[in-house]
Amino acid sequence: MANANNSCQTNAVWIVVAAYNEGSRLANTLKSIVDRASIVVVDDGSRDNTFAVACGFPVWVLQHPINCGQGAALQTGIDFALSRGAEAIVTFDADGQHDPADLPNMLEPVLSGQADVALGSRFLGAAQNMPWSRRLLLKLAILFTRLTNGLTLTDTHNGFRVFSRKAAEQIRIRQPRMAHASEILDQIAKHELRYIEVPVTVRYHASTLAKGQSSWDAFRITGHLLAGRFWQ
Amino acid sequence: MNLFQWITISGLGVLALLEARAYLKNRQPIHVLREFVWLSAIVLILFPWLTTRVAGLLGIGRGTDLVFYAFMLLSTGGFFHFYGRTYVMRRDLVELARREALRTATAGQGLDAYVWMQNATEQSRPDRAERVPATPLVAAPVPTTRSPETAGHTDRENSQ
Q1: Residue A39's domain is classified under what CATH number?
Q2: How far apart are CA A130 and CA B78, in angstroms?
Q3: Using one digit for the tens of pLDDT, what is the confidence trace for B17-73?
C-alpha cells in the first residue's frame, strides 16, 4: 500500500474528473483529492460556474465548448493525462459519490502491475442510501454485461476506475454519453486486459440521485450502445 | 392522361434527366439507383394497373397496399439512414469539441507552483526523468463567473 500512497503524490497518477453543471459539488470533491495526484477537470460545456470553480484549484481544466457527454469528457481527460506522462489514470465522479479514501486500494493493483484496470465495486464495498430501483437496474446491467462481453463483474457501471497507461492507450471511448461504461468493459474484454474489482464506497445523496440516470435511461443507453456498434 | 399525370410525370421526367446528366458527369452508382426510382414512378403513374398486377404477383392483392408497404419500407430505411448520418455527425462534432478542449487547456490557480514541486520530485527519480516533461506552466486568470465571453478569452490566452 505504501507504493500506491507514494505514487499518488507524483505525476505518475492522474485523476480525471468529468464535470457537468457540478458547480455546487465540485469544490468539495476537488478539496478531497487535490493533494493526492495530478488532476484534470473536464468541464463538459456546463451552464453553471463549474469552470470557474475548477479554475480555483491547482488542477488542469479543460472545457468542452458544448455538452458532449461523460464518455467524451473522460476520453478528453485521459488523452490529456497520457500526453503528460501519466502511468495510472483514475476516473472519479465530480459529484462526491466516491470516497477518496478508496484511492490507494484502487491504485495498488495497477501500480504493482497486478492488473491493467481496477474497477470499483459498490457491491463488494458499500452503497449508502442506494434506492432499490437503482440496485435492480445495476443488477440487470451486470447480467447484460455478462451476456454481451462475457465479463463476470459485480458492478459494471461504477465511475471509479483506474487504468494503467497501457490500458488507457488501448481503450478508446467512442460512446460520448452514458453508454461509455459498457463500452469500456467491451474494450477490456476485446483487448484482453487484466482487470480486478476493488471494493469501494458509493454514497448516494438526494441531489446526485435527482441529477443522475433514471431507470428509463437504461433503454436509451442500450440504444446508444447498439447504434455505436452498427455505425462504427 | 389526366392533369395529375401530366404534372407529376413532367416533374419526375426533369428529375430523371438531371439524374442521367449527373451520372454521365461522375459515374457514381447512386445516380443509377435514383434514376431507377424516378423511372419506376413514371411508369407506375402512367400505367396504374401495373401496381395491381405486381401486387397480385406478390400475393398482396391490391395495388394501393403495395404502394403503402413500399412507402413504409422506404420510410423505415430512410429513418435509419438519417439516424446513422446524424449519429456520425454528432460523433464528429464531439471529436471537434474534444480537440478544442485539449488545445485550450487552462491551468487552475496555483498550479504552476504545484507542478513545479511535483516535477522536482519526478526529476529526482532517474527512471522517470525522461518520460515526464517538466513543463513550465502559467496559471490562468480565474474568471469569477462562466460566460462564453470570459471562458473563450481565458482559453485563448492559455492556448499553447
Answers
A1: 3.90.550.10
A2: 42
A3: 999 999 999 989 999 999 999 999 999 899 989 999 988 888 988 888 988 999 999
The beta-carbon neighbor of A63 closest among B115, B131, B155 is B155
Chain B touched by A105 (CB under 8 Å): no
Q: How far apart are CA A74 and CA A93, in angstroms?
A: 10
| Residue at A101: amino acid letter | A
User: What phi, psi does A57 have (nearest 5°)?
Assistant: -120, 155
- Reported as half-sphere exposure (CB side, CA atoms, 13 A), residue A204 has a value of 18
Hey, what's the cell of B47?
400505367
Set of chain B residues whose Cβ sits within 8 Å of the Cβ of A42: 101
Residues linked to residue A163 through DSSP beta bridges, in sequence order: A89, A117
Alpha carbons A40 and A64: distance in angstroms, whole number: 13
CB atoms near residue B94 (< 10 Å): 24
Helix/strand/coil for A42 = strand
Q: Count of domains in chain A?
A: 1
B105 and A62 within 8 Å at the Cβ level: the answer is yes
Residues of chain A in contact with residue B102, where contact means CB-CB under 8 angstroms, are 62, 76, 79-80, 83
Contact B105 A38 (CB under 8 A): no
> pLDDT (tens digit, 9 = 90+) per residue, A51-103?
999 999 999 999 999 999 999 999 999 999 999 999 999 999 999 899 999 99
Name the A residues in 28-67 with CB < 8 Å from any B CB: 38, 41-42, 45-46, 48-52, 54-66
A89 and A14 Cβ atoms separated by less than 8 Å: yes
Under 8 Å between Cβ of B131 and A85: yes
Q: Is any Cβ of chain B less than 8 angstroms from the Cβ of A111?
A: no
Scan for cell 430523371, then name that residue.
Answer: B16
> What's the domain range around A69?
2-230
Query: Long-range contact list for B37-44, CB < 8 A, 24+ apart?
Result: B38/B12, B41/B8, B41/B12, B42/B9, B42/B12, B42/B13, B42/B16
Distance from CA of B27 to the nearest CA of A (A): 26
